[in-house]
């Protein structure tokens, strides 16, 4: 089933270069495994500045230390990134409380990303959306398809089954006023196997009011175009971009706002 035309054309399509930070360095984890880490030479600021110079307007910033231990640590970096690059920063990792959200926004972030807590305590996150506004919160859901074909939402580093199914939670958040949904197919994360376009078409079909961000598996510009045609409102660009498999400025030229 193809995505409704309105889902493709009603909002701008955004590209989100991603920077994952651990111990102050740019890294990528293989399938979320902290023991399987690849480090990259540029500092977070150097890398973000390069993305801004290539024409990016957004940055997806992840605090990997906080994602495991709690307590977001990158507020000083957010302030510096915003001041020196002008990028709109979407960031998360270890967000546990309303105060966390307020402090991250006060540091200059445009949106706060909430992941595991959105699975465990959706009503709490819905209250944050009401307080801060739908444009200031992105819910990030990491999903794995089980043997029956159901999409489930594991937690605790993808090791525990939360008992929550993706579709039911997406509908709940959509009904509660969520605007921005980032969804990752765990099997595709960091694998350069292409995004799961069938999953994104399904999400757009069940909740067309959401602005879905594709995450995981993007290999090249054709994959980005595929996500757009599936009805997504944006794509997070991770391993393939940082390893130079395509040029960000070319991707931006080929994905102008709708």
Automatic annotation (TrEMBL):
CDD domains according to UniProt: HisA
HAMAP family: HisA (MF_01014)
Family: Belongs to the HisA/HisF family.
Pathway stated in the Swiss-Prot or TrEMBL entry: Amino-acid biosynthesis; L-histidine biosynthesis; L-histidine from 5-phospho-alpha-D-ribose 1-diphosphate: step 4/9
Pfam families the UniProt entry points to: His_biosynth
Top-rank taxon: Bacteria
Residues at the catalytic site: 20, 142
Cellular compartment(s): Cytoplasm
Assigned EC number: 5.3.1.16
Protein name in UniProt: 1-(5-phosphoribosyl)-5-[(5-phosphoribosylamino)methylideneamino] imidazole-4-carboxamide isomerase
GO terms, molecular function: 1-(5-phosphoribosyl)-5-[(5-phosphoribosylamino)methylideneamino]imidazole-4-carboxamide isomerase activity
Provenance organism: Lysobacter arvi
Catalytic activity line of the entry: 1-(5-phospho-beta-D-ribosyl)-5-[(5-phospho-beta-D-ribosylamino)methylideneamino]imidazole-4-carboxamide = 5-[(5-phospho-1-deoxy-D-ribulos-1-ylimino)methylamino]-1-(5-phospho-beta-D-ribosyl)imidazole-4-carboxamide
